[in-house]
Records
---
Amino acid sequence: MQFLEMPAEERLNCFFELMSCGGEHHLWTYDTDGNLLSTDARDMALHKMFAASGLLEYLVDYCKEHHDLIVLSIAQGLLWCAAFETDSDEHVTKIYVYGPVATQDLSYETIGTITNNSDVTESWRPKFRRILRRIPVVMTSVLFQHAIMFNYCITGKKITVPDIVFYSSKKADTTPEAPSRNRIQTYMAEQELLRMVREGNLFYKKALERASSVSTGVGSGDRNAMRHAMISQIVFISLCTRAAIEGGLSPEVAYSKGDAYINDVLQCTSVTDTVHIGHSMYADFIETVHNRKNKQLYSPPVQSCCDYIDTHLESQIDLETLARRVGYSEYYLSRKFKTETGKSLNEYIRTARIDRAKILLATTEMSIQSISDRLCFGNRSFFADTFRKTVGMPPAEYRKKHLKL
């Protein structure tokens, strides 16, 4: 019998039989209301811990609209994988949870914190601590492979690490050591940020806030705050550049944007400035990938012109340069460009500059005059008038509504 012809329960039995060679790996099956249907664990303490962490409640809410494999964690470094059985209409019918596992040995302080935060009685606490000490330790890379195989056993779908969704419990972390050593949460937050770039997902602000709460940047060991901020932002820009390429952005556009933002970081004189550039860069890459995924497919010459415009918004752009770039006459390029995009070249350039201005207004404290100058509008009055006609409100009002630093 082929593996996928076996019932999901038999496939899972095979999976956990193999996992048992490396410690006590547990399977939990829940209905879509969060009621525990079955488990191979010998007691309910780990279930109570999972419920008390808020992760079970999150899973129940998550599966109402999603059924992608998800890895969940708590601040003390424990992780669970959840995969979903669905019916023919893609509605979730069962939730399968594998875990918990740890990515490193749990310290005495961490075990104490988990015990204090879990719904176990005083008399049960000594036994619960012994249970926690038996939780298997799995390297992060190995865990992700386990998660992918776990998902395959249930859904029959082959996925890769970038397809995994990550979620960290928002419950307060009272473990003294956790901020300096919980690398897994930093990695998960980073992967969520990069997934947003690859998807061109405009609902990225919560992910950015979560990442900021678990990471202070690259662990460079440099005590100079300015150098540390610059290194962190350059690394972040480099990661986002590659994620944007994976999301469909051309390498020419992605690397051009990335290089420009790195150059801006190198000219910063304060930590705050580097943070503002990081926010602008992130929003810019997501907007650009989103627009690329959602606009119609242009011919290679017209797409080449669009790419050039997107990477030269802070320079003068003329029809002659674009025509020479694609080997067309200026008259023919003008007609072809408007036929495919629905806009004249000047209209397209103006709209692209307004889109970039919206990002700068929402993510930096640059003055409106500086934004006007940077995007070649000539003067503030023309910029403000163009912005109002395009967006429906003046630049100052837009900033007041959307500024997020």
---
Amino acid sequence: MDVRVNFYSWFKDMTHCSETVVSLPANATVRDLKTAVFEQFPKLSAVQNSMLIAVGVDYQGGDYTLKNGDEVSLFPPVQGG
């Protein structure tokens, strides 16, 4: 299955792109997607503990099962003052 991954904020700088498509086996989880993304973009693995992940418009944890065509957003924590 194919999942579209969007990068936001300085994750775009780290990956040198705003989006990519990742091919995964059926029933892959967000955790599986992160592994695939870190293989493609090793610099992102350094910030994995502070990475926010949304599938569609909802935040999801590592055990969430993805579906073909899902759109996943990866971004750093929101900061403000």
---
Amino acid sequence: MTTPPGGNPFEMIFSQLGRMLSTAGPVNWEMAAQFAQWTATEGNDPGNVDPLERIRLEELVRVADLNVSHVTGMSTSATGRSVTVRPVTRLGFAVETLEAWKPLLGALAAALQPPATTDTPTLPDDLGLGGEMGAGLGQMLGPLLPGLQSAFMGMQCGSMVGSVAQRALGQYDLPIPRPVGDELLVVTDNVTAFTSDWGLPPDEVRLWICISDVAHHAVLGRPHVRASLEELLLAYMSGFDPGGVNLEGRLADLDPADPEALQSVLGDPTALLGEMQTEAQRAILPRLEALVAVIEGYVDHVVDQAGRRLISSYGPLTEALRRRRVERGQGERMVERLFGLALGQGQYDRGTSFVSGVLERAGDTALSRLWTDSHALPTPSELDAPGLWLERIDLPRDD
């Protein structure tokens, strides 16, 4: 299914409804792609990236790479090759991000699938379809429900990713691992809008983004860090209770002849939420929050160390970017809630306090031990008491 520039994907759904509803699997990825692209561009032609953007960003990412390596003492590469950067439009970012997040979004969709049932769906009495007609429609609706659920998830996932693309500056605005590689994405439309809104030097903003994303990439490129974060994210997203989404109840309000009705019933990005969090998820959350907080606290430390030397407007630029970071958009907030990421100011402060506490007690050498192996990752209680973490990592190990 292809949406023309400016086209409404809801209208495209109705033009190919039969094929859409016959799609198997928990997520209709074709529909997800269309909604991601349409939401990211708001139906407008995204245009092309200026070739000069690529040239300038390639120069800046080399500077960022050298300085992040110097501060961290780590290789920034996940593959052994050089870290590179690719400038993209919001559309390009949405396409790449949807593909990168498929394993996580697929786990979420599978968790939200209602249990299989052999019961014939019942239609509300107030539809005025009683007797044999009502029973016949109920029987007809039954086989369509898996396709409707798949379409619903496709719309939700696509709308969410598209909303993220409208604001993201780089690929690690949200600290979510991507497939192993050494290419970073920078969303030039959003960088241009941000520099204009705040009256900041464009090249200094680009360099700050490169430093931040290269630092994230260095940490998430450590195999044990990536594995730990992916495991926690997958476990959290697989733990949702399918009772939280009453798709059949939403369909009772649907006028099948009205595309706007479909949009109002299925197009709300918050429709997936509600009271879905389970006890299993609440048990996972402290470990997930602790790992994300220490990653963000460490990256902020690296950006401070490198950025103060390289960026003349570092103070006001950093303040503007960090204010923007905690003033998330709707799509980012939804990702945070669905992925179990709590990225309010409190979480950033926890990570910063941990890093500061380690540096005050034992200096950079101790801080660099954070990423040596999974044993060195702080527990939730250690995150709030860095002295405990230092004591534990110095204890003899049985392994």
---
Amino acid sequence: MNEINRNYLFEGISADVVRYLVERDGMELPDAIATFHNSETFAKLEDFETGLYIESPAYVYDLLKSELKYAHLVP
């Protein structure tokens, strides 16, 4: 897959995950963007070596939700 296609998928997934945070979790847009962009999930999505960019936005959102859930449990 070429770089243009990878970037297209990355951007689409990112937009959808932020939209899910706003619609499903009731976050304000700036908070949703910051939450996602500062997450380990985003770092993995941004690293094309992980292959996460070929997964569905819902899958990436679920990974983020798990990350956020368990981040709150760690002191």
